[in-house]
Amino acid sequence: MSPQRPPVGDRFRRFRDRLAADGTDRLVADGTDRLETSGDHSGRRAGRRGGRRGGGEEVRVPEAEFTSYYGRPVLKAPVWKWDIAAYLFTGGLAAGSSLLAAGGQLTGRPALRRAGRVTALAAVSASAVFLVKDLGRPARFHHMLRVAKPTSPMSMGTWILTAFGPAAGIAAIAEAADWLPRHGLLGMARRALPPVGHAAGLLAAGTAPALATYTGVLLADTAVPSWHEAYPELPVIFAGSALASGAGVGLLAAPPAQAGPARRMAVAGAALELFGAHRVETRLGLLSEPYRLGRPGRLLRAGRLLTSVGVAGALLGRRSRVIGGVSGAALLAASVATRFGIFYGGVASARDPRYTVVPQRERVDARRADLSPDRAAPPAL
Hints:
Elements: H1 8-22, E1 25-28, E2 34-37, E3 40-46, H2 82-106, H3 110-135, H4 138-143, H5 153-174, H6 184-220, H7 225-228, H8 234-253, H9 260-282, H10 289-292, H11 294-316, H12 321-351, H13 354-371
Helix pairs in contact: 2-3, 2-6, 2-8, 2-12, 3-5, 3-8, 5-6, 6-8, 8-9, 8-12, 9-11, 11-12
């Protein structure tokens, strides 16, 4: 020990004398390691771990409030911008439109078939543009086709788009067969395109459910709290939104006499979308907050209202082309609002550390409670 520093005993005695001189607290050196308040022995506090003495209060360190990790966010928010939210919408629109086209094809409704095929091609083309814009370089999409990884939603989504896009394109091109001359080489193409288009349309419709739902699986596979916890609901919401948007195309483009499949799609899609949206806003506890507050809450409420208006118009205005068009526009707008609301809700949950830390604490406490020896033992058989 350095000669300049006083012995430990002297420092302890000076500390005890200072407490006694202040007249507030004094140390009771009777071997019990207690701290009592002068003039009020009812305020004794036991220094022993895990216990109290004399009815005093237990000293506890307050729970820390996490706002950052050394000045950095607890969870890095997604770098995706509005173009990915638009990609979510256009992918669902392409899937719903191809299903609408297949329904029109199988039931002999050419207006529905034509509108669905053309819209599916336009929507999947827009999806490719948004996706390549996010990737930064078109070659990155090509590089993702080097492997097929079933456990990766991004890898599976790349292959789904690769299968859906050409089929939707051939089906849409087949709609131009009537514009070709009847004789010569183009006449042969005119006769070959319809059956090829029918096969391609059914192939596109077969991959449409996977295209409509894989983006929900992709979002739930991230660490973003409100997306990850909603993994059962997001595919349901996106499937319903895809059906509703496809129905909107049919109600806008087809005459009322051919819009029967579109009306049935509207009812089915609205039921799935409203059910899933209600679940993510009520089932997730604290993680439901981002879907109810701010811009995500406004978008999802607008989506519910527009969906209800679209379904009501589809069912009540069966003979009116104007009401059918208004209903179709409402369903399309509802799909946009729902997709953007889900997207921005997840981004908001990643930016607030509370949505990351509090659920983790709750899970840890639940595991500790399950492993606690104080739990009652099961009755003996």
